[in-house]
Amino acid sequence: MSHETPATDRPLTTGLAEAAGMAGHAPSVHNTQPWRWKVLPDALELRVVRDRQLSAMDPEGRLLAISCGAALHHARVALAAEGWTALVERMPDPTRPDLLARLTGFTHTGADPDAMRLVQCMQVRHTDRRPVSDEPIPDAALDEIDRAANREGVNLQILDDTQKIQLASAAQQAAAVEAGNPELLQELAYWTSRAGTGTGLPPEVLPEQAPQTTVPGRSFGRPGTLPVGPGHDRAAVYAILWGSEDEPDSWLRAGEALSAAWLTATRLGVSLVPLSGVVEVDGTRQALRHILSDLGFPYLSMRLGLADPTHAGPPHTPRLDVAQVVDTSAVRDQRS
Ligand SMILES: Cc1cc2nc3c(=O)[nH]c(=O)nc-3n(C[C@H](O)[C@H](O)[C@H](O)COP(=O)(O)O)c2cc1C
């Protein structure tokens, strides 16, 4: 039985611009939103914005590409929710490394209800750095999150107790190394004092004191105003996203997997906090490789847990205006 529906009356370019706009909800390291979209008559292009790369913390651009990958996945889901399927070329032009992806070959089929649910999740997903509740995550929910990452071609290793301790030790070591890097601290100070710019981390989303967690979260260099309470995240699960290559296109895919896992987690009431300090420092990134039995390359570690349902979480971080991240100049006359 065919699920095809009649082609939509809405111009393709309107759908592309809207999907690129929805991708603005994606998570990014320090809320840098280092992407820009170009809407073309029959294509959508994703470019990296090097001005918003963290040159001290992320000189290789690993977290930059992961952030852009998350935006790419958000756009793909938004298109699917509107009924569009597309071909996705990652790193389509070796002579233009800043062109991260090109979406082409659009056909309009029926709107995908699963994608529609994930679009709703995009609008409520956020990073909640408070300790998670004592309630364990149901196994079925963890399996679903794992499968969501796997479908993007990336592995999600759920850590056992020994590996959790190893991750905690690596995170402590990474924090100590980073605390001794003045350029990195300056960069952190910049991204935590960006009020009114649509980027960066406002004090309301940063803990007022370090929460009690098995694996230490990132120190943002200044206390925020988010009350953390006395809880300890004993029921938290820690995991590492990893794959067989350590190249920009695999980092992009890691970002797509992060987005897929995070939106699925949101749908299931599971909170996810990326912990990237351990992949920013060479030595601790190697330690993560050992945790993975040297089977592949770590892209990002994360904490998963059920959010405390009795307290409102932190507010949403700001976002850049759509006009700053979506260029529709090539199709202005075609959009309704
Ligand atoms: C690649 C990547 C790395 C991140 N690393 C951390 C981290 O180490 N610690 C942390 O608390 N949040 C981390 N985050 C979460 C971002 O700070 C967060 O996504 C951003 O501020 C936007 O806020 P939102 O997720 O609430 O929309 C990371 C996010 C991404 C995509």
Automatic annotation (TrEMBL):
One of its GO terms (molecular function) is oxidoreductase activity. Residues 202-228 are annotated as: Disordered. NCBIfam families: Rv3131_FMN_oxido. This is Nitroreductase. It comes from Micromonospora palomenae.
